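Data card: per-record layout.
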Amino acid sequence: MIDTAVKNADRAAPRRPFARWRLAAAVVLTCALLSACTGEQFQRGYIMPPNALEQIPIGASQDQVLLVMGTPSTVATLDGEVFYYISQRADRPVAFMKQKVTDQRVIAIYFDKNRQVRRLADYGLKDGKIFDFVSRTTPTSGQEMSYLAPLFKLLSFN
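The structure for this 158-residue chain is written out next.
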């Protein structure tokens, strides 16, 4: 009688050796799919080396600037030469969503007629307006503003 009770117990609870593996595989697959939907950061344009602007004193030569900063994104001639280093950072909180621009920067290095650094500027957007983060001012109208405004409009992909 004991043998039949053990046999009946084995029939009542069939063993599923792969059930736990299937559950584990489903959990891993779900985690992998959810991690694919996490946010992304995008960096476009110039990536400034750490403390690069501090290494460029007023009066430094163009060659020194090129050694520290590298090749500029664009060059203009306004009362001397100006090197522009342009960058943009954007975030996308979830995959397949539209990118949102979080930071736009234009680093401008102004040279005098002797090719010596006259002024440094780090332009970005603050409250929707072009703002110089070095001198903490907003540029006024003139040649400089007429050149910077299209750069920022070109950078924004909205």
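Known properties of this structure: The chain is about 30% helix and 30% strand. The radius of gyration is 30 Å.

See the next section for split statistics.
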